[in-house]
Amino acid sequence: MAIVDVENLTRSFGSVKALDGLTFSVEEGEIFGLVGPDGSGKTTCLRILCGLMAPTGGKALVLGKDVAAEPESVKDQVGYMAQPAKLYDELTVKENIEFYADLYEVPRDRYRRRMNRLLEFSGLSPFTGRLFRNLSGGMKQKVGLSCALIHTPKVLFLDEPTNGVDPVSRRDFWRILYELRREKVTMVVASTYLDEADRCHRVAFFDRGRVRMVMAPLELRKMLKDQLFKLTTPDRRKALGLLKTMPGVLHPYVFGTGIHFLLDESGEAPAVQSSLASAGLREVAIERIQPSLEDVYLSLLQEDGVEP
Fold this sequence. Notes:
It is built from nine helices and 14 strands. By secondary structure, it is an alpha/beta fold. The strands form three sheets. A six-stranded mixed beta sheet has the order 6-7-8-3-9-10, with helices on both faces. It is elongated. 37% of the residues are buried.
């Protein structure tokens, strides 16, 4: 059953088209990722799905309701967490959660049980009396998540929930999301971190207001049918320029401290190394590697003529 169904969704701000014909669906119980760089349309899409913004065209259904025509019909069944978590600095952890419980008109006896459960599995129980402004970035995000969950939503929309937090807090946050799956919560998570896409059941790659594709992470990796290699050299600039001229070499790009490139059926790594040596690059190491989702995304951009 599709919990979220988006069809040809568009949104313009004057002459700027933030969303350009998005189409995808999210099944019940999925953790669904919206992955792409800043400015690719992820936040605009989430705000429309929450009923906070009207689309320019197309259709967005959440729990079978048209969120443009009936935004109030789904608000008590969805949770939304913005980036960063926008809560009240002068309220404590407990007071912020209680405030959101009152906003959603959750009965007092019910929200106390729910709050105790949220505090327990988020690890916030020892900090209920601490002011929100005195929390670390990761703890603030956990409080924001607890506020979004206090009314027990069926669908949870998270806008870059781990942006700017430390690796340990990122791991803890995703542990909490996996716990929520046991409660049959459907989650749509926007992120700029491509490694987080591996934690999702399926991923929609956003690119300049469009969805390039929707696939499971493993299937996305299989899209790079050519061999992927990593090259390390002291002179990356010269190596990159040479690789772009070599037959059989596809889509070379700088990746971390090295260069990643593909070889088609006509290319061979020893021949690449020999050609680089002939051009004066002798301190070169080439190894075949398994593609990451970032490799897939950068390869897609280059196919469109966009330099990563």
